Amino acid sequence: MAPVPAPSPALLRARVVAWFEREARPLPWRAPDRTPWGVLVSEVMSQQTPVARVEPSWRAWLERWPTPADLAAAEPADVLRMWGTLGYPRRALRLQDCARAITERYGGEVPSSYDELLALPGVGPYTAGAVVAFAFGRRAVVLDTNVRRVLARAVAGAALPRPQQSAAEVRLAESLLPDDDAAAAAWAAASMELGALVCTARSPRCGACPVADLCAWRLAGSPPDEHAGRRRTQAWEGTDRQCRGRVMAALRAASAPVPREALAAVWPDASQLTRCIASLVEDHLAEESPSGLHLPSSAR
Questions:
Q1: Residue 28 DSSP symbol
Q2: Does residue 300 surpass a pLDDT of 70?
Q3: What's the pLDDT tens digit per position in 179-217?
Q4: I need a labelling partner for 51 at 20 to 30 A (CA). Which of 28, 83, 98, 146 fits?
Q5: Coil, strand, or helix at residue 289?
C-alpha cells in the first residue's frame, strides 16, 4: 500500500482550532484572569494526573498560595499535605523549589522566556513550552502525550507514538507551528485538547474528530500499534509506589510523629516498608526522629 500523504498543515490547524473554540473545557487556568503562576501550577499538577482530579486541588492551592513568594515561604509539611493524593509528591517539593527560584531570581514574577523557564527547578521542555504558550500567548513547541498522539495519527499515520519521545517528533511539531504567536498558542491548546477528549489512546472517538477525513492513520486503514511490545504497563498493587503512598497518607493525616510500629499497620511486608521509608527520607518527603516518622519540618 502506498504511503498516505500527510494533511495540509494549514487545513489541519484550522479545523482543530475551530473545533477547540466550540468544545474546549472551561478550565480555570484558561480563564481570562489566569496568571502565569496559575498556569505553571496547573502544568506541574497535571503531569500524570487527570484534569478532573487536578482542578479542585489547583483551586485550593492558588487560594492558599496565590503567588510564588507565598509558596516559597510555606512549610514543606503544609505543601505536602495540600498536595494530598495528586501522586508523585516530589512534584510538590520541586514546585516549591521552583517558587523559591522565581522569588529569588525574578522578584516573584514567572519569567516569560523558554530558556529562563527551563532553568527553573522541576521545569522540563514540555512545561516550559506550555507556560510560554498558555500563560504568555507566545510561539512554543508544546509536546505532551496528547499532542504526540494527535500528530502520530493525523500526520505520521501511526496508531500511537513511540514509547519515548524522539527528536523527529519535536521537528514535526516545530514544522506544524504557525509563525504567528497567537495562532501558535491556539494550535498548542487545541491539539492538546483534541488528544485529551477525542483522539484518546485506547478508544479514539473518530466520529467526533474534526480531522477524521484528513487523518493519515485512518486513511491507511488504522494499522495496529507497531510499538505495542515495547510499552511498559505500570503496575500498582503491591508496588513500592503503593507502599510509599500509604506511608505518605499516614503522615499527612498525623499531627505528631508516627512510630514505626504504627506504620506497620499500613503495609504488611516489613522489608518493603523499611525500604520505602528509607526512600521517602532520601527524597526529603519524610524525616525520622526518635519518636517516629513525620513530614519534613524545614526546607531542604
A1: G
A2: no
A3: 999 999 999 999 999 999 999 999 999 999 999 999 999
A4: 98
A5: strand
What is the pLDDT at residue 2?
54
Backbone angles phi, psi at 156, to 5 degrees: -90, -15
Q: Check if the beta carbon of residue 138 is closer than 8 Å to that of residue 132.
A: yes
Q: 127 with 40: CB under 8 angstroms?
A: yes
How far is it between the farthest Cα atoms of the chain?
Answer: 70
Q: Which strand (E) or helix (H) includes residue 292? A: strand 292-294
List, by residue number, the catalytic residues. Answer: 43
Residues 6+ apart with CB under 8 A from 266: 246, 247, 249, 250, 273
pLDDT digits (tens, 9 = 90+) for 113-152: 999 999 999 999 999 999 999 999 999 999 999 999 999 9
Cβ neighbours, 10 Å, residue 52: 8
d(C-alpha 167, C-alpha 147), whole Å? 15
Q: What is the pLDDT of residues 66-115, one digit of tens each?
A: 999 999 999 999 999 999 999 899 999 999 999 999 999 999 999 999 99
Q: Is the pTM of the predicted complex or chain greater than 0.85? A: yes
Q: Name the phi and psi angles at 295, rounded to 5.
A: -65, 155
Q: Provide the residue ranges of all domains of the chain, joining segments of one domain with +.
A: 240-294
Length of the chain: 300
Any bridge partners for residue 294, and if so which?
Answer: 287
Helix, strand or coil for residue 89?
coil
Cα separation, 190 vs 175, in Å, equals 16
Phi-psi map region of 122: left, alpha, beta (phi>0 left; psi -120 to 50 alpha): left
